[in-house]
Amino acid sequence: MTLDATSLQVVKATDRRLKRAERSKLASFGLHAALITASVIAVFPVFWVLVTSFKPDAKAVETTPKLFNESSLDNYGRILDGEKGDFLSWFGNSVLIALLTTVIAVFLSATTGYAASRFRFPGKRSLMWMFLVVQMFPFAVLIVPLYNILLTLGLQGLSIGLVLVYCTTAVPFCTYMLKGYFDTIPSDIDEAGRVDGLSPFGVFWRLVMPLAKPGLAVTSFYAFLTAWGEVAFASAFLSAADESKTLAVGLQVFVQQNRTEWGHLAAASILVAIPAVIVFYLVQRFLVTGLSSGAVKG
After folding, report:
1. Cα Dmax for the chain
2. Is 120 helix (H, G, I), strand (E, B) or coil?
3. Cα angle vertex 34, ends 31, 40, to 5°?
4. Is residue 175 a contact partner of residue 113, using CB atoms and an 8 Å limit?
5. DSSP line for 1-19
6. How far apart are CA 246 and CA 87, in angstroms?
7. Is the dihedral of CA 147, 151, 153, 155 positive or negative?
8. What is the mean pLDDT for each group of 10 consecutive residues in the chain (298 residues)?
9. Distance between CA atoms of 106 and 225, rounded to whole angstroms?
10. Where do the TM regions start and end (predicted)?
11. φ/ψ of residue 86, rounded to 5
Protein backbone atom coordinates (compact mmCIF):
# COMPACT_ATOMS: atom_id res chain seq x y z
CA MET A 1 0.00 0.00 0.00
CA THR A 2 2.88 2.31 0.82
CA LEU A 3 4.57 1.48 -2.45
CA ASP A 4 1.38 2.22 -4.39
CA ALA A 5 0.98 5.61 -2.69
CA THR A 6 4.63 6.49 -3.34
CA SER A 7 4.39 5.44 -6.96
CA LEU A 8 1.25 7.54 -7.39
CA GLN A 9 3.01 10.60 -5.99
CA VAL A 10 5.95 10.03 -8.34
CA VAL A 11 3.58 9.71 -11.30
CA LYS A 12 1.76 12.92 -10.35
CA ALA A 13 5.04 14.80 -9.89
CA THR A 14 6.23 13.54 -13.28
CA ASP A 15 3.00 14.67 -14.93
CA ARG A 16 3.34 18.13 -13.42
CA ARG A 17 6.92 18.42 -14.68
CA LEU A 18 5.88 17.33 -18.16
CA LYS A 19 3.04 19.87 -18.21
CA ARG A 20 5.38 22.62 -17.05
CA ALA A 21 7.91 21.64 -19.70
CA GLU A 22 5.18 21.69 -22.34
CA ARG A 23 4.01 25.11 -21.19
CA SER A 24 7.61 26.32 -21.17
CA LYS A 25 8.09 25.16 -24.75
CA LEU A 26 4.88 26.89 -25.85
CA ALA A 27 5.85 30.07 -23.98
CA SER A 28 9.32 29.98 -25.50
CA PHE A 29 7.90 29.47 -28.99
CA GLY A 30 5.46 32.35 -28.52
CA LEU A 31 8.20 34.63 -27.19
CA HIS A 32 10.55 33.86 -30.06
CA ALA A 33 7.76 34.29 -32.60
CA ALA A 34 6.86 37.68 -31.11
CA LEU A 35 10.52 38.80 -31.12
CA ILE A 36 11.02 37.68 -34.72
CA THR A 37 7.85 39.50 -35.80
CA ALA A 38 8.89 42.67 -33.98
CA SER A 39 12.37 42.48 -35.51
CA VAL A 40 10.97 42.10 -39.02
CA ILE A 41 8.62 45.06 -38.48
CA ALA A 42 11.52 47.19 -37.20
CA VAL A 43 14.03 46.20 -39.88
CA PHE A 44 11.77 46.13 -42.94
CA PRO A 45 11.43 49.95 -43.39
CA VAL A 46 15.21 50.33 -43.24
CA PHE A 47 15.64 47.48 -45.71
CA TRP A 48 13.08 49.05 -48.07
CA VAL A 49 14.83 52.43 -47.91
CA LEU A 50 18.09 50.66 -48.78
CA VAL A 51 16.47 48.93 -51.77
CA THR A 52 14.83 52.18 -52.90
CA SER A 53 18.17 54.00 -52.78
CA PHE A 54 19.39 51.91 -55.73
CA LYS A 55 16.37 52.65 -57.93
CA PRO A 56 15.63 55.56 -60.28
CA ASP A 57 13.03 57.99 -58.96
CA ALA A 58 10.39 56.74 -61.41
CA LYS A 59 10.87 53.11 -60.34
CA ALA A 60 10.91 53.88 -56.63
CA VAL A 61 7.15 54.46 -56.45
CA GLU A 62 5.86 51.77 -58.78
CA THR A 63 2.39 50.43 -58.06
CA THR A 64 3.76 46.88 -58.15
CA PRO A 65 7.34 47.38 -56.95
CA LYS A 66 10.04 44.91 -57.82
CA LEU A 67 12.81 44.33 -55.35
CA PHE A 68 15.84 44.94 -57.56
CA ASN A 69 14.30 46.45 -60.68
CA GLU A 70 16.89 48.55 -62.58
CA SER A 71 19.13 48.85 -59.52
CA SER A 72 22.29 50.97 -59.80
CA LEU A 73 24.56 53.31 -57.86
CA ASP A 74 23.56 56.37 -59.90
CA ASN A 75 21.71 58.01 -57.00
CA TYR A 76 24.77 57.79 -54.74
CA GLY A 77 27.05 59.08 -57.51
CA ARG A 78 24.90 62.13 -58.22
CA ILE A 79 24.65 62.99 -54.52
CA LEU A 80 28.37 62.65 -53.81
CA ASP A 81 29.32 64.51 -57.01
CA GLY A 82 27.28 67.52 -55.92
CA GLU A 83 24.79 67.21 -58.75
CA LYS A 84 21.96 66.91 -56.23
CA GLY A 85 22.85 69.45 -53.55
CA ASP A 86 26.14 70.20 -51.79
CA PHE A 87 26.16 66.94 -49.84
CA LEU A 88 29.82 67.07 -48.79
CA SER A 89 29.40 70.55 -47.28
CA TRP A 90 26.32 69.36 -45.42
CA PHE A 91 28.27 66.36 -44.17
CA GLY A 92 31.16 68.53 -42.95
CA ASN A 93 28.78 70.90 -41.16
CA SER A 94 26.95 68.02 -39.49
CA VAL A 95 30.18 66.35 -38.34
CA LEU A 96 31.54 69.60 -36.91
CA ILE A 97 28.32 70.49 -35.11
CA ALA A 98 27.78 66.96 -33.79
CA LEU A 99 31.35 66.60 -32.49
CA LEU A 100 31.35 70.03 -30.83
CA THR A 101 27.98 69.29 -29.24
CA THR A 102 29.22 65.93 -27.97
CA VAL A 103 32.45 67.29 -26.48
CA ILE A 104 30.91 70.36 -24.83
CA ALA A 105 27.76 68.64 -23.61
CA VAL A 106 29.56 65.63 -22.15
CA PHE A 107 32.18 67.79 -20.41
CA LEU A 108 29.56 70.08 -18.87
CA SER A 109 27.37 67.12 -17.92
CA ALA A 110 30.26 65.21 -16.38
CA THR A 111 31.44 68.11 -14.21
CA THR A 112 27.89 68.99 -13.15
CA GLY A 113 26.94 65.37 -12.49
CA TYR A 114 30.10 64.80 -10.46
CA ALA A 115 29.45 67.90 -8.36
CA ALA A 116 25.84 66.81 -7.75
CA SER A 117 27.02 63.33 -6.79
CA ARG A 118 29.87 64.22 -4.46
CA PHE A 119 29.11 67.64 -2.95
CA ARG A 120 26.27 69.12 -0.94
CA PHE A 121 25.23 72.65 -1.81
CA PRO A 122 22.07 74.77 -1.57
CA GLY A 123 19.58 74.09 -4.36
CA LYS A 124 21.05 70.72 -5.32
CA ARG A 125 17.70 68.90 -5.25
CA SER A 126 16.00 71.77 -7.11
CA LEU A 127 18.73 71.68 -9.76
CA MET A 128 18.18 67.98 -10.44
CA TRP A 129 14.42 68.46 -10.61
CA MET A 130 14.93 71.34 -13.02
CA PHE A 131 16.94 69.07 -15.31
CA LEU A 132 14.00 66.68 -15.44
CA VAL A 133 11.43 69.42 -16.01
CA VAL A 134 13.43 70.88 -18.91
CA GLN A 135 13.12 67.54 -20.74
CA MET A 136 9.33 67.85 -20.71
CA PHE A 137 9.23 70.90 -23.00
CA PRO A 138 8.71 70.10 -26.70
CA PHE A 139 11.24 71.52 -29.14
CA ALA A 140 8.63 73.65 -30.90
CA VAL A 141 7.98 75.66 -27.72
CA LEU A 142 11.68 76.50 -27.35
CA ILE A 143 12.37 77.70 -30.88
CA VAL A 144 11.14 81.30 -30.43
CA PRO A 145 12.90 82.12 -27.11
CA LEU A 146 16.12 80.43 -28.24
CA TYR A 147 15.97 82.32 -31.55
CA ASN A 148 15.68 85.63 -29.67
CA ILE A 149 18.58 84.73 -27.39
CA LEU A 150 20.84 83.82 -30.31
CA LEU A 151 19.81 86.98 -32.13
CA THR A 152 20.75 89.07 -29.09
CA LEU A 153 24.12 87.33 -28.78
CA GLY A 154 24.83 87.69 -32.51
CA LEU A 155 25.00 83.91 -32.99
CA GLN A 156 21.93 83.50 -35.19
CA GLY A 157 22.87 81.72 -38.40
CA LEU A 158 26.20 80.45 -37.02
CA SER A 159 27.15 76.86 -36.31
CA ILE A 160 28.37 77.65 -32.78
CA GLY A 161 24.93 79.04 -31.95
CA LEU A 162 23.30 75.78 -33.03
CA VAL A 163 25.85 73.85 -30.95
CA LEU A 164 24.85 75.83 -27.86
CA VAL A 165 21.18 75.17 -28.60
CA TYR A 166 21.82 71.44 -28.84
CA CYS A 167 23.75 71.57 -25.57
CA THR A 168 20.70 73.02 -23.83
CA THR A 169 18.76 69.87 -24.76
CA ALA A 170 21.56 67.33 -24.24
CA VAL A 171 23.11 68.58 -20.99
CA PRO A 172 20.07 68.07 -18.68
CA PHE A 173 19.58 64.41 -19.61
CA CYS A 174 23.31 63.66 -19.70
CA THR A 175 23.83 65.31 -16.31
CA TYR A 176 21.10 63.26 -14.69
CA MET A 177 22.48 60.11 -16.31
CA LEU A 178 26.06 60.71 -15.23
CA LYS A 179 25.05 61.76 -11.74
CA GLY A 180 23.44 58.35 -11.28
CA TYR A 181 26.56 56.66 -12.63
CA PHE A 182 28.93 58.64 -10.39
CA ASP A 183 26.82 57.57 -7.42
CA THR A 184 27.85 53.95 -8.11
CA ILE A 185 31.58 54.80 -7.90
CA PRO A 186 32.80 54.54 -4.26
CA SER A 187 33.71 57.87 -2.71
CA ASP A 188 36.72 56.16 -1.09
CA ILE A 189 38.48 56.62 -4.44
CA ASP A 190 38.10 60.37 -4.10
CA GLU A 191 39.47 60.33 -0.56
CA ALA A 192 42.45 58.24 -1.63
CA GLY A 193 43.20 60.70 -4.41
CA ARG A 194 43.06 63.67 -2.07
CA VAL A 195 45.40 61.89 0.36
CA ASP A 196 47.86 61.50 -2.53
CA GLY A 197 47.74 65.25 -3.09
CA LEU A 198 45.33 65.53 -6.00
CA SER A 199 43.06 68.55 -6.28
CA PRO A 200 39.27 68.03 -6.53
CA PHE A 201 39.48 68.46 -10.30
CA GLY A 202 42.49 66.14 -10.43
CA VAL A 203 40.51 63.47 -8.60
CA PHE A 204 37.64 63.91 -11.04
CA TRP A 205 39.78 63.92 -14.18
CA ARG A 206 42.42 61.31 -13.33
CA LEU A 207 40.52 58.86 -11.14
CA VAL A 208 36.77 59.13 -11.61
CA MET A 209 36.54 59.82 -15.34
CA PRO A 210 38.43 56.64 -16.39
CA LEU A 211 36.05 54.59 -14.22
CA ALA A 212 33.03 56.26 -15.78
CA LYS A 213 33.70 55.18 -19.39
CA PRO A 214 30.37 53.28 -19.77
CA GLY A 215 28.37 56.27 -18.57
CA LEU A 216 30.37 58.64 -20.75
CA ALA A 217 29.78 56.37 -23.76
CA VAL A 218 26.01 56.47 -23.25
CA THR A 219 25.89 60.23 -22.86
CA SER A 220 28.25 60.78 -25.80
CA PHE A 221 26.05 58.65 -28.02
CA TYR A 222 22.95 60.55 -26.91
CA ALA A 223 24.58 63.95 -27.43
CA PHE A 224 25.85 62.93 -30.86
CA LEU A 225 22.42 61.74 -32.00
CA THR A 226 20.81 64.89 -30.61
CA ALA A 227 22.86 67.00 -33.00
CA TRP A 228 23.21 64.59 -35.92
CA GLY A 229 19.62 63.97 -36.98
CA GLU A 230 17.80 67.03 -35.63
CA VAL A 231 15.83 69.13 -38.14
CA ALA A 232 13.69 71.77 -36.40
CA PHE A 233 16.45 73.73 -34.65
CA ALA A 234 18.83 73.41 -37.60
CA SER A 235 16.20 74.79 -39.99
CA ALA A 236 15.41 77.73 -37.71
CA PHE A 237 18.87 78.73 -36.47
CA LEU A 238 21.17 78.21 -39.46
CA SER A 239 21.56 80.41 -42.50
CA ALA A 240 19.41 79.57 -45.50
CA ALA A 241 22.54 79.36 -47.68
CA ASP A 242 23.05 75.90 -49.12
CA GLU A 243 26.61 75.57 -47.80
CA SER A 244 25.47 76.26 -44.21
CA LYS A 245 22.94 73.45 -43.99
CA THR A 246 23.32 70.23 -42.07
CA LEU A 247 22.56 66.83 -43.56
CA ALA A 248 19.12 66.54 -41.97
CA VAL A 249 18.12 69.96 -43.37
CA GLY A 250 19.78 69.35 -46.73
CA LEU A 251 17.58 66.32 -47.38
CA GLN A 252 14.69 68.71 -47.86
CA VAL A 253 16.03 69.64 -51.31
CA PHE A 254 14.81 66.26 -52.54
CA VAL A 255 11.24 67.05 -51.47
CA GLN A 256 9.95 69.60 -53.95
CA GLN A 257 6.56 71.23 -54.21
CA ASN A 258 5.26 69.06 -57.04
CA ARG A 259 7.29 65.88 -56.67
CA THR A 260 9.67 63.99 -54.42
CA GLU A 261 12.89 62.42 -55.64
CA TRP A 262 12.48 59.21 -53.67
CA GLY A 263 15.54 57.44 -55.03
CA HIS A 264 17.90 60.28 -54.21
CA LEU A 265 16.20 60.90 -50.87
CA ALA A 266 16.61 57.25 -49.90
CA ALA A 267 20.27 57.22 -50.96
CA ALA A 268 20.98 60.38 -48.97
CA SER A 269 19.19 58.90 -45.94
CA ILE A 270 21.41 55.82 -46.05
CA LEU A 271 24.52 58.00 -46.22
CA VAL A 272 23.27 60.06 -43.27
CA ALA A 273 22.68 56.93 -41.19
CA ILE A 274 26.18 55.48 -41.71
CA PRO A 275 28.04 57.79 -39.23
CA ALA A 276 25.42 57.12 -36.54
CA VAL A 277 25.84 53.37 -37.06
CA ILE A 278 29.63 53.74 -36.78
CA VAL A 279 29.33 55.70 -33.52
CA PHE A 280 26.95 53.08 -32.15
CA TYR A 281 29.40 50.31 -33.09
CA LEU A 282 32.23 52.10 -31.27
CA VAL A 283 30.30 52.54 -28.01
CA GLN A 284 27.99 49.50 -28.03
CA ARG A 285 30.02 47.50 -25.51
CA PHE A 286 29.57 50.30 -22.97
CA LEU A 287 25.89 51.02 -23.60
CA VAL A 288 24.25 48.27 -21.52
CA THR A 289 26.59 48.80 -18.57
CA GLY A 290 26.20 52.56 -18.70
CA LEU A 291 22.43 52.53 -18.95
CA SER A 292 21.92 49.96 -16.17
CA SER A 293 24.43 51.56 -13.80
CA GLY A 294 23.11 55.07 -14.37
CA ALA A 295 19.59 53.92 -13.58
CA VAL A 296 20.46 52.46 -10.17
CA LYS A 297 20.49 55.74 -8.28
CA GLY A 298 18.97 59.11 -9.12
Report:
1. 97
2. coil
3. 140
4. yes
5. -HHHHHHHHHHHHHHHHHH
6. 9
7. positive
8. 54 59 68 88 88 79 62 82 81 92 94 88 83 78 88 88 91 89 87 86 89 88 89 84 80 79 86 87 72 48
9. 13
10. 26-51, 90-115, 127-147, 153-178, 216-241, 261-283
11. -85, 70
What predicted TM-score, i.e. pTM, was given to this entire model? Answer: 0.79
**Contacts for 182 with CB less than 8 Å, ≥ 6 apart:** 113, 114, 117, 118, 208, 212, 215
Q: Compute CA distances 120 → 99, 117, 124, whole Å.
A: 32, 8, 7
**Considering only CA atoms, which of 208, 179, 210 is closest in space to residue 293?**
179
Beta-bridge partners for 255: 260
Cα dihedral 106, 111, 114, 118 in deg (nearest 10) = -170
Report d(CA 49, CA 37) in Å as an integer: 19
Q: Which of 144, 218, 137, 149 is nearest to 180 (CA)?
A: 218
**Start-end of H helices in 119-158:** 124-134, 139-153
Long-range own/partner contacts, residues 142-149 (CB < 8 A, 24 or more apart): 142/168, 143/232, 143/233, 143/236, 146/233, 146/237, 147/236, 147/237
